């Protein structure tokens, strides 16, 4: 295949005519013979509601099942956006959107693609956090696979119950660290569902290829254990061998059922399992930890872009993190790796420019013995420092990054200390949802007297300070994983390599223009995300080919065009 033959994406047949490449070809909506179109209307993948044409109503036994009017998809979209905007409560918007996804999948994605900046905070952070907290109460229809301890020994059978065979991406959680909201057990399902809807809307991965999974090993959340509407196992978390065995059975069953090339994205596991799972399965499976690797890639992209504003190179910066878990140490490691690529210095040298604070204070060498393994590389020589503000004064960072999961930690004193040290302090408050952000956009701009370059994990509105409007950027792995996953799929990559993460960062940073910098942005707007994702996918795929990790051969000539042609288009198809 060359760059001009776009009929089959990533080696998996486009069964439902989901790719942009198949947009003009009529498809057969329903393969079983039916006497009534009623079931067609109840199938969210094929339902068009009032947009079924006269011809389709005749051909598919829909006459009388619909009122006479025929609407365009655009008019349906207009109506739904109007209706959504009537809801004042974000959770109501979330529920309305989930209902739409269950009713008419293409219309759901059309809304999401065309209104991404408005709807991202609904299907994703912050609202998805509240949805997970209340998942039991708002539960209507299951949207993914639930694999609990009850299914031990039968996981392969459970996977076979899923109706799709051509799965390309699985997002899996065990619900133990849902955003910065802690252990939400089985109710963490909202996260894989939300992440995969972004795989489709932002990255163009077909909905039929996406599988959300929650592994339920219990919860230690007392409130949920006592909640009569809780949907999960009512027991405390399994740990140790019992946990490892269930996870191992799951990983083996996935490979057996879907083959080598299904991408397994670990999401919102607690760090005591996350690092181990990634290390254990990265040489045998196509695995990616979004919280460690995706977050690292998006933050590095923001830093590379911000150098235009800060001046100097990455190696000229000094970094201080609040939070030394998955996100914090994952980002730190990728920064150190990129510095090595740029300077040729050993990674150990570069790590010395990066400092982390955890719940016990600055990570220093005298604490080394008692530190978790992922913190040890960051234990530099220094006297102990307990408070963040004192660490800022002692370390003198140019960049301050919040990955603590705890809100309000970047106090006025902390931001003022950063502003006293730097002409343009770079401050990232990455913790989600909004309630857990280390500071707000307003606080960062006000306390730094309009000098901070600010980005946050959850979105904040633009803020006017001293006559100037500042637009805060959203440093969220949602910029990375959809395009990254698409790149993996279109190249048929068999493993994830750190250089593919660096390629994704570079691709994202390249999308930031002068116009964005003028507004104070170090990320391009999400409204351009499909184009951004195609560029990320192309760079990631190119790196996979270069590293010999790609199995989709020969390499398409124009990877950006190829990525675009493989992307899901939510436009209705014409039914023959
Ligand atoms: N914007 C984005 O794209 C992403 C954002 N995140 C967000 O980052 C946050 C952290 O996630 P993750 O790294 O996975 O979580 P972890 O639990 O792995 O790490 C949290 C870290 O924060 C430290 N910490 C907790 N409380 C405090 C405190 N009061 N002061 C100082 N340090 C503290 C913990 O310390 P100790 O080790 O001592 O317990 C730990 O080192 C979450 O809110 C998550 O939503 C995560 C991924 C992506
Ligand atoms: C964004 C994300 O992955 C998190 O907050 O966990
Ligand atoms: Mg996450």
TrEMBL record:
Full protein name: Malic enzyme
Give the molecular function GO annotations. Answer: malate dehydrogenase (decarboxylating) (NADP+) activity; metal ion binding; NAD binding
Q: Is Metal-binding among the key words of this record? A: yes
The protein's required cofactor(s) are namely: Mn(2+); Mg(2+)
Q: Where is (S)-malate annotated to bind?
A: 177, 432, 476
What InterPro entries does the record tag this protein with?
Aminoacid_DH-like_N_sf, Malic_enzyme_CS, Malic_N_dom, Malic_N_dom_sf, Malic_NAD-bd, Malic_OxRdtase, NAD(P)-bd_dom_sf
Residues annotated as binding a divalent metal cation are 267-268, 291
Q: What is the lineage of its organism?
A: Eukaryota, Viridiplantae, Streptophyta, Embryophyta, Tracheophyta
What reactions does this protein catalyze?
Answer: oxaloacetate + H(+) = pyruvate + CO2; (S)-malate + NADP(+) = pyruvate + CO2 + NADPH
Q: According to the record, how does the cofactor bind?
A: Divalent metal cations. Prefers magnesium or manganese.
């Amino acid at each position: 295949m060359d760059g001009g033959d776009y009929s089959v994406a990533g080696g998996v047949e486009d069964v439902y005519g989901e790719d942009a490449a198949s947009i003009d070809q009529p498809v057969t909506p329903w393969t079983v013979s039916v006497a009534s179109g009623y079931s067609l209307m109840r199938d969210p993948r094929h339902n068009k509601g009032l947009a079924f044409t006269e011809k389709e109503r005749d051909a598919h036994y829909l006459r009388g099942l619909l009122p006479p009017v025929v609407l365009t998809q655009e008019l349906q979209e207009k109506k739904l956006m109007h209706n959504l905007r009537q809801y004042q409560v974000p959770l109501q918007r979330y529920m309305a959107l989930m209902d739409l996804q269950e009713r008419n999948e293409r219309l759901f994605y059309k809304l999401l693609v065309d209104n991404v900046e408005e709807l991202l905070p609904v299907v994703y952070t912050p609202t998805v956090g509240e949805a997970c907290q209340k998942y039991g109460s708002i539960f209507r229809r299951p949207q993914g696979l639930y694999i609990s301890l009850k299914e031990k020994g039968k996981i392969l059978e459970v996977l076979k119950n899923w109706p799709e065979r051509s799965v390309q991406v699985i997002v899996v959680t065990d619900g133990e660290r849902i955003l910065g909201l802690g252990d939400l057990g089985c109710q963490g399902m909202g996260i894989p569902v939300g992440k995969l809807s972004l795989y489709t809307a932002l990255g163009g991965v077909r909905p039929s290829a996406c599988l959300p999974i929650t592994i339920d090993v219990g919860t230690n959340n007392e409130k949920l254990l006592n909640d009569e509407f809780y949907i999960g196992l009512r027991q405390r978390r399994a740990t140790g061998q019992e946990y490892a065995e269930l996870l191992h059975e799951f990983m083996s069953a996935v490979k057996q059922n879907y083959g080598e090339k299904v991408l397994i994205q670990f999401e919102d596991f607690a760090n005591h399992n996350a690092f181990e799972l990634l290390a254990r399965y990265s040489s045998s499976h196509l695995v990616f930890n979004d919280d460690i690797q995706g977050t690292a890639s998006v933050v590095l992209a923001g830093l590379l872009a911000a150098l235009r504003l800060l001046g100097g190179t990455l190696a000229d910066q000094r970094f201080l993190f609040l939070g030394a878990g998955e996100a914090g140490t994952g980002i730190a490691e990728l920064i150190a790796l990129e510095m090595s690529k740029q300077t040729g210095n050993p990674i150990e040298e570069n790590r010395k420019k990066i400092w982390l604070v955890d719940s016990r204070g600055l990570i220093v060498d005298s604490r080394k013995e008692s530190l978790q393994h992922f913190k040890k590389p960051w234990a530099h020589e220094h006297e102990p420092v307990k408070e963040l503000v004192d660490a800022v004064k002692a370390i003198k960072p140019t960049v301050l990054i919040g990955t603590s999961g705890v809100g309000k930690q970047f106090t006025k004193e902390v931001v003022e200390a950063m502003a006293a040290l730097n002409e343009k302090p770079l401050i990232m408050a990455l913790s989600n949802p909004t309630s857990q952000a280390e500071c707000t956009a307003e606080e960062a701009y006000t306390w730094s007297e309009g000098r901070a370059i600010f980005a946050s994990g959850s979105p904040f509105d633009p803020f006017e300070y001293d006559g100037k409007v500042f637009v805060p950027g959203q440093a969220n792995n949602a910029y990375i994983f959809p395009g990254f996953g698409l790149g993996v799929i279109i190249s048929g990559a068999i493993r994830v390599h750190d250089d593919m993460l660096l390629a994704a960062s570079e691709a994202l940073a390249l999308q930031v223009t002068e116009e964005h910098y003028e507004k104070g942005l170090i990320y391009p707007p999400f409204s351009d995300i499909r184009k951004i994702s195609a560029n990320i996918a192309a760079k990631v795929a190119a790196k996979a080919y270069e590293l010999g990790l790609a199995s989709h051969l020969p390499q398409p000539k124009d990877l950006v065009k190829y990525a675009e042609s493989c992307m899901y288009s939510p436009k209705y198809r014409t039914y023959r």
